[in-house]
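Got a spare moment? Tell me how you read both lines of this record:
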Amino acid sequence: MRWEDITTIVIIIATFVIWIAWDVYLGARGIKTESMWLAEWSRRWSIIPFFLGALVAHWCNQSSAPNYELWPWLVVSLSVVLFYDVSKFWWEPPVFMKYPGLWLIVGIPTGSLFFPQRFVP
């Protein structure tokens, strides 16, 4: 294993440890945690759960033959969701369209199709 691999693994683990420790610290003090902030922002901005779904698909749903030429469609998809978010200042969407879980679920296949990750055993 190269030093870059070890550094990458340490950064990933450290990031999760820091987020969890900070969440526990804030929660124990009765202060709004980063989880609460993300949940609040996700209810207001659909692009957040959409992008997180795409990112999770990128990390976890790998392909042996990814089509990297489709990535511009991810940018188009993100732009459409961002336009939808901005347009909510002028109209009230149906209640089901405000649910962050919907945008997370829509982001997963979008990420799988347009933001592929090559499977490396």
User: Anything to note?
Assistant: Residues 17 and 50 are 24 Å apart (CA to CA). The two ends are 14 Å apart (CA to CA). The mean pLDDT is 94.
